[in-house]
Design a protein that fits this description.
alpha+beta, Phosphorylase Kinase, domain 1, Transferase(Phosphotransferase), domain 1, Thrombin, subunit H, 4 domains, six-stranded antiparallel β-sheet, 12 helices, elongated
C-alpha cells in the first residue's frame, strides 16, 4: 500500500480508537468549528493531539499534555535515526521527538489498510517566525523586532557551534514561544555526524537555501546561508518595518536567497550600502559573507559572535576568528591591516578580534586613529570601529594621515586634507610627499620645494 494522503490521515484521526499500535486513547484536538487542528506540508501532515496521563510515560515525554503527531505522505527517510539522536541531546532549541514505526493504521479507498510510521513531538505553543514577524511589522514595533533579531542571532550562533545542522531553516520551521524564545521544528532534513557521506533527502526552501545546494551538499554547514539570510532580514526589518509590505513573498521574509546569490536583489544591494555607510560593521560583514559562491559561509561563526556581543575571544576561538586572513601591516597591533579574499579590514592582533570587518576593496594602514578605505568606487575615512567619518568621491587616492594631513589625488594632481576631511591644500601638484616635522616636499612644474600644513611655501 502506498503512503496515505492527507485526507486519509484526517479520516483516521477523526475517529482514532483502535488504530494506534502502541499509543492508546489518543485525543485529536479540534478548533472552535469542530475541525481537527492540523498543518499540512509537502510530504506530511501534523495533528495536535492529547494523551491521557497514563500514556505520557509511554510517550517518553511526560508532563507535557499536548503533542504534535506527524504523519507522512511519502517515505520518511532517516527520521527514526534523527529522533533517536535528538532524544539523547539536552539542547535548548530542538523539540523533543520520538519515532513510532508502524504506529497508525490507515485504510485506503478500497477499505484495505496497513500500519504507517509517525513522529510524536512536544507541542510548542506559539506562532511561526513568519507570522510573528508579519504581526510585529504590521504594528511597526521596532523594539520587539530588534529583540527578536538578537534572539535569532543567539540561536544561530548556538546552532553553528554544533556538530549537526537542522537542514531546513526557514520561517515556517522556527516557532516563537509566548516568552519570545525560539524553537526549531521539522527535523526531517537534519544532518548528524553519523550521516557523513550520505545524501540529503530534504533540500529546504529555495527562498532561504543557497541555489547550489543539492543532495550531495549534506554536512554541518548547510544551515549557514539560510541563517545569514534570515538574520539580515530581521535586522533590516528592525530598522525599517515597512520593508515587510514591500518585499515579503510569503516564503522568505524580505530577502530571497536565489536573488541574493545571483546579485539581482536591489534590496540586498541597498542594505549593504546603508550598513557600510552607517558603520554597522557586523551587519556589513554578514552582508558581505552572503556573496559566498557555495552554501558554506566562511567566517560566519565569528560574525555571529560579534553580533551577539561575544567579542572577548581567547585561545582556540581567537585563532579560529583570524584563520585564513593575511596580515598586511601590523605597525599598530591594536588596529592591524588585514586582508581576506581580496577584501581589507582591521583587527586587534593581541586580543584576536576584528575591529573592522574585511569589507573594503582597498585600505590604508590606520594612522592617528583614522583609516582610509575604498569601496564602491568611493574613498572614506573611518574610525577604529569602522564608523564612517567622511566620504571622498572626488578623489582617486587617499593616503594615511601624517601629522594631521592625508595626501589625496584628483585627476593626477596631489594635495592634502585634514583629519576632518576638509581640503587644506588644493590638489595642484604633480608630486607631493607625506608630512614630516611640519613640512611636505612638493613639485610644481620643474621646481621642488616644501610647504607647511596650510599649503604655504616654506623658505624662498
Amino acid at each position: 500500500m502506498r503512503f496515505p494522503t492527507v485526507g486519509q490521515y484526517i479520516e483516521s484521526l477523526a475517529n482514532p480508537q483502535g488504530l494506534f499500535r502502541t499509543l492508546r486513547d489518543v485525543v485529536p484536538l479540534r478548533n472552535p468549528y469542530g475541525e481537527l487542528r492540523l498543518h499540512a506540508g509537502n510530504f506530511s501532515v501534523v495533528f495536535k493531539v492529547g494523551l491521557p496521563v497514563q500514556e505520557e510515560a509511554l510517550s517518553g515525554m511526560t508532563g507535557m499534555g499536548h503533542y504534535a503527531l506527524k504523519c507522512y505522505t511519502r517515505p520518511c527517510g532517516r527520521i527514526g535515526r534523527v529522533c533517536a539522536a535528538v532524544g539523547a541531546l539536552d539542547v535548548p532549541y530542538l523539540v523533543r521527538c520520538r519515532y513510532l514505526p508502524e504506529e497508525l493504521y490507515v485504510y485506503d479507498e478500497y477499505e484495505r489498510g496497513a500500519y504507517f510510521p509517525a513522529v510524536l513531538s512536544e507541542w510548542v505553543e506559539g506562532e511561526t517566525l513568519g507570522r510573528h514577524v508579519a504581526r510585529l511589522c504590521g504594528a511597526g514595533d521596532r523594539e520587539a523586532l530588534s529583540l527578536l533579531a538578537g534572539r535569532f542571532d543567539r540561536m544561530a550562533l548556538w546552532l553553528l557551534q554544533q556538530p549537526y545542522a537542522h537542514g531546513d531553516i526557514k520561517p515556517d520551521n522556527i516557532l516563537v514561544e509566548p516568552s519570545g524564545e525560539l524553537r526549531l521544528i521539522d527535523l526531517d532534513g537534519m544532518f548528524l555526524p553519523q550521516f557523513a557521506g550520505e545524501r540529503s533527502v530534504v533540500l529546504g526552501s529555495p527562498t532561504c537555501q543557497h541555489p547550489l545546494r543539492d543532495e550531495r551538499c549534506f554536512d554541518r554547514d548547510i544551515d549557514d546561508y539560510p541563517l545569514a539570510i534570515l538574520s539580515l532580514s530581521l535586522h533590516a526589518l528592525a530598522a525599517a518595518p515597512g520593508l515587510y509590505d514591500r518585499y515579503n513573498d510569503r516564503e522568505s521574509l524580505i530577502l530571497n536567497a536565489a536573488e541574493v546569490a545571483a546579485g539581482t536583489s536591489g534590496l540586498f544591494a541597498e542594505l549593504g550600502r546603508n550598513w557600510i555607510d552607517a558603520g554597522e560593521g557586523e551587519l556589513a560583514a554578514l552582508w558581505r559573507a552572503l556573496h559566498a559562491p557555495v552554501p558554506a559561509v566562511a567566517g560566519l561563526r565569528a560574525v555571529f559572535r560579534a553580533l551577539t556581543g561575544d567579542r572577548a575571544l581567547t585561545g582556540d576561538r581567537a585563532l579560529e576568528l583570524l584563520a585564513g586572513y593575511d596580515v598586511v601591516e601590523d605597525g599598530d597591533r591594536a588596529c592591524a591591516l588585514i586582508c581576506h579574499g581580496g577584501r581589507y579590514g582591521y583587527a586587534d592582533l593581541d586580543r584576536g578580534v576584528w575591529t573592522v570587518y574585511p569589507l573594503w576593496e582597498e585600505a590604508q594602514p590606520c594612522s592617528e586613529g583614522i583609516a582610509m578605505v575604498r569601496g564602491g568606487g568611493c574613498w572614506r575615512a573611518i574610525d577604529a570601529t569602522g564608523r564612517i567619518l567622511s566620504r571622498f568621491p572626488e578623489y582617486t587616492e587617499v593616503m594615511p594621515l601624517r601629522e594631521g594631513r592625508a595626501r589625496i589625488c584628483r585627476e593626477g594632481l596631489y594635495g592634502f586634507i585634514d583629519a576632518g576631511g576638509r581640503e587644506s591644500v588644493a590638489p595642484v601638484y604633480p608630486f607631493a610627499g607625506a608630512f614630516r616635522e611640519g613640512r611636505a616636499k612638493v613639485r610644481l612644474q620643474e621646481d621642488y620645494f616644501y610647504i607647511d600644513r596650510n599649503g604655504c611655501k616654506i623658505g624662498g
